[in-house]
Amino acid sequence: MTHLPIRYGLPVLALFAAASAIAGNPAATTTNTLTLTVEGVRSDEGQLRAQLLARKGPDAAAETVGYAVEPARTGQVILTFRNLPAGDYAVQLFHDENDNGRVEMNLAGIPTEGFGFSNVTQVQGGIPPFEKMKVTVTGRTTAIAVLAYAP
């Protein structure tokens, strides 16, 4: 039998405690999926990179709870977030055409690569509020995002 050094004991115990809490919570064991259809992808270059956001409470700031990455395909790309607890989520994403993992910006701070948000079909100004991007996920849920590209 292999024993972990004591410094690993607490994180391992925390992991087991979290697993037990999830197992005891029927809502947490339900499998929910968010499928996001991304429209307006202008090329097959690079990847689409998406950030899944959620709030811990109605007045809390949105926090990142997951990511999805898919190869770019001209026209439409499907991104899927699996095994989510039921709740409200939002997605912000960009088309990483040069595949460097960053959103490229011009001197005015406007993205030069495509970007979009869940439930927002026309991007105007900056990042929309969480409530505008919000998707309530229960069971198999679908949403749409349309990429905007700077001229």
User: How is the biggest beta sheet arranged?
Assistant: 5 strands, antiparallel
Low-pLDDT residue spans: 1-27
Number of helices: 3
Shape: globular
User: What is the total number of structural domains?
Assistant: 2
Strand content: 35-45%
User: CATH superfamily of the largest domain, called what?
Assistant: Carboxypeptidase-like, regulatory domain
Mean pLDDT: 83
Helix content: 10-25%
The end-to-end distance, rounded to whole angstroms, is 62 Å
Estimated radius of gyration: 18 Å
CATH class of the largest domain: Mainly Beta
Q: Which architecture name of the largest domain does CATH use?
A: Sandwich
- Find the structural class using helix and strand composition: alpha+beta
Q: Quick one: how many beta strands?
A: 8
**Series of secondary-structure elements, N-terminal to C-terminal:** HHEEEEEEHEE
Q: Which fold does the CATH topology of the largest domain refer to?
A: Immunoglobulin-like
Structure description:
By secondary structure, the chain is α+β, with helices and mostly antiparallel strands. The chain has two domains: 1-29; 31-146, Sandwich (Immunoglobulin-like), CATH 2.60.40. Helices cover 15% and strands 40% of the residues. The chain has helices at 9-23, 26-29, 130-133, and strands spanning 32-41, 47-54, 63-71, 75-84, 87-96, 115-117, 135-137, 140-146. Strands 2, 3, 5, 6 and 7 form a five-stranded antiparallel beta sheet that branches. It has a three-stranded mixed beta sheet with strand order 4-1-8, with no helix packed on it. A hairpin with an 8-residue loop joins strand 2 and strand 3 (63-71). The longest helix is centred in the N-terminal third of the chain and has 15 residues, at 9-23. The chain starts with 8 loop residues before the first helix and ends in a 5-residue tail after the last strand.
